[in-house]
Design brief:
There is one protein chain. This protein has 296 residues and is α/β, with parallel strands linked by helices. It has one domain (11-277): Rossmann fold (3-Layer(aba) Sandwich), CATH 3.40.50. It has helices spanning 11-15, 24-29, 60-80, 123-135, 153-172, 180-197, 219-227, 256-295; strands at 33-36, 48-52, 55-58, 116-119, 140-141, 209-213, 232-236, 247-250. Strands 5-4-6-7-8 form a 5-stranded parallel beta sheet. It has a 3-stranded antiparallel beta sheet with strand order 1-3-2. The radius of gyration is 22 Å and the shape is globular.
């Protein structure tokens, strides 16, 4: 549950702690609000500027530093087009798992470049996550994390394919051959699977990275990513170990405006990388033609 912001902590009080236009956008979005001091993770102390009325005020210099590193990595993944992660079988609590480098890979990359899985189940994150995912045709999780989504990819993919087939059959009239009672059963099954797989229709391969809002409430996802050495880009608050993600951006994860600020920064970086990714083949062809002309 979101914590109420102490009315005594005003934007004007925070503005007095900073100078320069580069902080204006962050202050307007409320990025500087951390959690209560009693909830602060000890390893987050270097990222806190000051405590006001028991509320932590985040050091926005550190936020911008973390954002720059995270976006550079994100652009690298998008521009590079990602790489296929292989699927296979191994012993796991789910009865089937995967080890990087074994088995056969499914199609790897998003059509837009790298393969990023977006994760944000909090009410303040859902709208922004869905918007970002749809713009770049990427898989997303906004309801709840499905256990084994990463570590049991092979079996999860089969269930996802079954869900997509049911939806397609319903759309094309493929279920008309069944009785009314059977069709109602299929429709209930589609609604149930929609909650689990609704954002995963483009989940065709293990992701090159996770982009996550607040790992504190997605610890199963974090553990699965760590097990498979999949890097995490995360928007985190002051109540978490910043080293939990490879790329942590410290900010207010409890306010929609702040979360949307982070997601829009990610979108801007992805648009830039996508443009470069699209231009590279053309540039390569032109370079080859010039080399051929020079050789002739």
């Amino acid at each position: 549950m979101s914590e109420p912001i102490d009315n005594k902590i005003t934007d004007e009080a925070v503005v007095s702690l900073y100078s320069g236009e580069r902080f204006k956008e962050l202050i307007e979005a409320g990025v500087f609000f951390g959690r209560k001091r009693t909830k602060t993770n000890p390893r987050m102390r270097p990222y806190i500027l000051v405590t006001r009325n028991e509320m932590e005020i985040i050091n926005l210099e550190k936020t911008l530093e973390g954002l720059e590193q995270a976006l550079l990595f994100l652009k690298e993944k998008i521009r590079g087009g990602g790489s296929a992660r292989s699927t296979g079988s191994a012993d796991s609590p789910q009865g089937g798992s995967l080890q990087p480098g074994s088995g056969q890979a499914r199609q790897a990359s998003s059509p837009q470049g790298g393969n990023i899985l977006l994760v944000g189940t909090q009410p303040q994150a859902v709208e922004g996550v869905v918007k970002l995912a749809k713009e770049f045709n990427m898989p997303f999780v906004t309801a709840r994390w499905l256990g084994g989504l990463l570590t049991n990819f092979k079996i999860i993919s089969k269930r996802n394919d079954y869900y997509k087939k049911l939806k397609d059959d319903l759309r094309t009239g493929g279920l008309e051959k069944y009785t009314k009672k059977e069709r109602l059963g299929f429709e209930r099954e589609i609604r149930r699977l929609e909650e689990l797989f609704g954002g995963l229709e483009n989940y065709l391969a293990l992701p090159d990275a996770l982009l996550m809002i607040d790992p504190n409430i997605h610890m199963t996802a974090v553990r699965e990513a760590k097990r498979l050495k999949i890097p995490i880009i995360a928007y985190v608050n002051t109540d978490i170990d910043p080293d939990l993600a490879e790329y942590s951006v410290i900010g207010n994860t409890k306010a929609r405006k702040s979360v949307n600020w982070f997601l829009e920064k990610a979108a801007e970086a992805m648009r830039e990388a996508k443009a470069l990714h699209s231009a590279e083949p053309k540039e390569s062809v032109e370079t080859a033609e010039k080399m051929n002309q020079a050789a002739a």
